[in-house]
Design a protein that fits this description.
Elements (H helix, E strand, L loop, with lengths): L8 E9 L2 E9 L5 E5 L4 E2 L5 H8 L7 E12 L9 E3 L8 E6 L2 E5 L3 E3 L10 H11 L14 E10 L14 E5 L5 E5 L5 H16 L31 H10 L15 H10 L5 H8 L2 H4 L1 H5 L1
Parallel strand pairs: 4-12
Antiparallel strand pairs: 1-2, 2-3, 5-8, 5-9, 5-10, 6-7, 7-8, 11-12
Helix pairs in contact: 4-5
Length: 302
């Protein structure tokens, strides 16, 4: 639909005329080259980094968020061979705990730990991992030990601040849209299941700020790229793109080789990630285009 997507660029500062944002200065973090981008309206949709961006626009602005860390562990499916998900409705700290079959493994989570430091690479604590293991083991026929954990990953949730709440687990997963005096449109909070309504509200506000012609949304029924169901094999997660990966293998049979005997990914998928999915780094490939690092950290390192 005409979008230009850029990757690995950081925001240095906003460009303003008469205290109104008219663009931004950004830096390509891979090459070090800086650029100036002009824009009739700018949207801040940066998740847990929302407040940092607001500070660039308005130093001293009141924070909108409190962040919490959620940790997950991945174990072999032998511990939970069911094809159905399993949920524990209330843990000792009042959260839910789940075990979900995922990429022929099982992902178990999650935790809710308030954090003060916002980082793009949050790390799980031993206490959080032990919390998950001890709780899930109350319901497992074969106990999970620390040595059985194939991978651990953590993420930060952008939760709307509430001074009356004593812990982040009770903070709502609602979202909010705000327009600053500079014209910056901020959309923050929320969750994956509400992202389309969040996007619609952000765009409606952006159209109003920029005094653009309001048009009927063309994305309400938009299907996500690759949505078409594939064959029931390991390339099925690529949907309609799977045919192109098979074509790569057809053109070069050597690309059918697996990266590692403990991982389900072929060399063709790496080529596809670089050529067609904007993968720029090894971590892009291992963690974001495939799930290698999340399924088996040791094998991913090898």
């Amino acid at each position: 639909y005409g979008a230009t997507l850029i990757n690995y660029c950081s925001l240095n500062q906003f460009i303003k005329i008469n205290n109104k944002i008219t663009g931004a200065e950004i830096t390509d973090t891979l090459s070090g080259k800086s650029f100036r981008i002009n824009a009739s309206v700018t949207i801040n949709a940066t998740g847990v980094f929302t407040d940092q961006v607001l500070q660039l626009d308005e130093p001293g602005a009141a924070p909108m968020l409190e962040a919490s860390r959620g940790v997950h562990i991945v174990v072999d499916k032998s511990f939970f061979p069911s094809s159905h998900a399993f949920i524990i409705p209330k843990t000792d700290d009042g959260r839910v705990l789940f075990a979900v079959p995922w990429h022929d493994k099982v992902v178990i989570g999650t935790t809710d730990t308030a954090v003060n430091e916002i980082t793009d690479d949050p790390a799980a604590s031993r206490e959080e991992i032990d919390f998950i293991i001890s709780h899930i083991n109350r319901y497992m026929s074969a106990p999970i030990h620390y040595r059985d954990v194939l991978s651990v990953y953590a993420g930060l949730r952008p939760l709307l601040t509430n001074k009356q709440a004593r812990k982040t687990s009770v903070l709502p997963r609602d979202h909010i849209t705000r327009v600053s005096a500079s014209g910056l449109v901020t959309i923050t909070g929320g969750k994956w299941t509400t992202y389309r309504s969040m996007a619609e509200q952000a765009i409606d506000n952006a159209v109003f700020v920029a005094k653009l012609e309001k048009k009927k949304s063309i994305t309400r029924e938009l299907r996500i790229h690759g949505y078409a169901a594939g064959n029931n094999d390991r390339l099925a997660v690529y949907g309609s793109d799977a045919v192109f990966i098979r074509q790569l293998i057809s053109n070069d049979p050597g690309l059918s080789a697996l990266l590692h005997p403990e991982l389900p990914y072929s060399r063709a998928e790496i080529v596809w990630a670089v050529q067609s999915e904007m993968a720029m780094t090894v971590e892009d490939v291992l963690a974001r285009r495939t799930r290698a690092l999340l399924l088996n950290a040791k094998a991913a390192v090898e």
